[in-house]
């Protein structure tokens, strides 16, 4: 009775502040709607004990309860995320435990490899259900805003290759190469000699297969290798969606390793998610805690200012910075729609628990990018200390001329 009274008072307080398309189903069969409109989200509390999740509705509490099956949640993922965030804002203080906390994790090769395998080695078939046909698992580039996902992902790769001013026959290292889309494009369009490295056995196997099927084995080598073990020098280096796994304290070392691998006149491009908190804090209301526990173990996001400082500490001069936050919000929204459209197949491949994790994770990321909690930056750099003549006069080379006959869709 005590818990039920607490829940009743909480519901009255929420109703006084918000109108939400939310229905709460209690363990005794009672239904409570928090607005007069048709509910778009339903939260079912199967027993009295489950009420505590609503009484402290942080993103970590409700997210964990949903993932572990302690509560049931029905609705579209984007509606679920919007409702839960509204409850968190209304019920919790955006400070203390639920603030943008800064947490640091220890990193070593074994831990990093285990974290990568946890996230990426679900199965290749799992990722194929919601990614584009080339399986690009990073922010797409919507040049005009109306592109489909496959087009936007290839535009992103081309945008990167133009940014680094890749020339025919040059060597290219792709750190965290995923399923090989960038190196395949670089080899096919520019004749670049490419090395792609990943710590994911599943990615390595499929990327190697795709290189072979493309007939590009003479130009591309896919390695199951830590970037710290790569030797030699490369004309161009790309790192797309990888440095989030490095750790805040290790970023200068990471960029220092890139400096050592970069040819004297080389160009590097780092594409990665950043915190929008100047102190490198994670997303508020427990969102970061949920992601660390269920999605990206030991992942850490740095503020763009911290990243730029770390690059300089790694002896790299930054020559261009571009914010693609809007692009990632859209990318994650499309991934969410694809995920839900293939929901039954995803459940078969990943199981109920992982389905629930990713169901809220993808939509939550789209929401976080939309709300300016996190961002995405592409940063171009060169070895520091060079003469000014090494830098381009303008950014014109990053954008194809309108008279170029249109964008090339071939892969």
From TrEMBL:
This protein's UniProt keywords: Lipid metabolism, Methyltransferase, S-adenosyl-L-methionine, Transferase
Active site (UniProt): 365
Pfam families found in the cross-reference section: CMAS, DUF7884
Domain of life where this protein originates: Bacteria
GO biological process annotation, one example: lipid biosynthetic process
Domain DUF7884 intervals: 15-92
Record GO terms (molecular function): methyltransferase activity
Family statement: Belongs to the CFA/CMAS family.
Protein name stated in the entry: Methyltransferase domain-containing protein
Source taxonomy: Bacteria, Pseudomonadati, Pseudomonadota, Betaproteobacteria, Burkholderiales
